[in-house]
Amino acid sequence: MEAARSDRRIPSPPLADVPESRPTPLSATERRAFILANTRLQRPPHTPELQLHLADEITPIWRLTEEALAEIGVPPPFWAFAWAGGQALARYVLDHPQVVRGQRVLDFAAGSGLVGVAAMKAGASHGLCADIDDFCAAAIALNAEVNAVRVAFTAENLLDAPPPDVDVILAGDISYENPLAGRVRAWLAEAHARGVMVLMGDPRRSYFSTQGLRPLAEYEVQTTRELEDFAVKRTGVWTFG
Ligand SMILES: C[S@@+](CC[C@H](N)C(=O)[O-])C[C@H]1O[C@@H](n2cnc3c(N)ncnc32)[C@H](O)[C@@H]1O
Q1: How, if at all, do strands 168-172 and 213-222 pair?
Q2: Which of 8, 77, 95, 160 is 20 to 30 A from 1, alpha carbon to alpha carbon?
């Protein structure tokens, strides 16, 4: 997968490298089948109480290049990994259920849906996962199912409008490239100004700024050297103020 500056192993965003002659998009059923065939159920090291359909060195998707995936209509599979920022944020929510209990929660840039699933496990009244990669719809549905929770999904780019009417926004590992990181931060600041509780989980990626943020927790999150520069990433959870 392509690198992004000092976050060497973070892949480029979905659709960035899709060739001009795109293959026919996979149907929802085909996406679900692809995920089941190319991942295995695993417990992320930092949130072992959750199970997710993830890729690792013994799943076939691990060996496919970005080009090979694009040829079969699969954008870079962010959803196949539990990123350090998401793992930290999910851990925080599971350990501090009062933050989300009875609240309407948005998991922004949800990927596998790890954070949204954690919020539902912690007692959120409603969970909406948002990710611009359509593949996440299938991955998140499977991951919600296996953890016996329900979450809604939208592939709409929520950054194009004011933040939605929710009580809490959780954003895991969204500062891996610019201008996305800056755009998300401004949007989250707008949500905060409207009274929404905003929590971010991030292993201090290149474009993550702590300016205006208050640290809530710090974790040593086990990841994989296939994706990251270190096998263990120091990862924080922050809020505004
Ligand atoms: C590094 S992954 C993090 C996934 C998950 N939060 C986690 O921590 O495991 C970043 C995700 O951001 C998503 N993304 C990028 N731009 C987005 C946007 N404008 N709206 C929603 N999701 C976006 C990507 O598709 C990808 O799934």
Answers
A1: unpaired
A2: 160
Q: Which atom of ligand 1 is nearest to the CA of 115?
A: 6
Mind listing the pLDDT tens digit for each residue in 61-105? Answer: 777 788 888 888 888 899 999 999 999 999 999 999 999 999 999
- The residue assigned the tokens 């109480």 is 49
Mapped onto helix, strand or coil, the DSSP state of residue 51 is: coil
pLDDT in tens, 19-51: 445 677 889 999 999 999 999 999 999 999 999
pTM: 0.90
Q: What's domain 1-241's architecture? A: 3-Layer(aba) Sandwich (3.40)
Domain ranges of the chain: 1-241
Ligand 1 surroundings by CB, under 6 angstroms: 13-14, 78-79, 82-83, 85-86, 109-112, 114-115, 130-133, 157, 159, 172-174, 176, 180
CA of 79 to the centre of ligand 1 (A): 8
Tell me how far apart the alpha carbons of residues 209 and 216 are, in angstroms, rounded to a whole number: 15
Indicate whether 6 pLDDT > 60: no
Residue of 39, 42, 158, 173 to mutate, ligand 1, most atoms within 8 A of C-beta: 173
* DSSP secondary structure letters along 134-190: THHHHHHHHHHHHTT---EEE-S-GGGSSPPS-SEEEEES--SSTTHHHHHHHHHHH
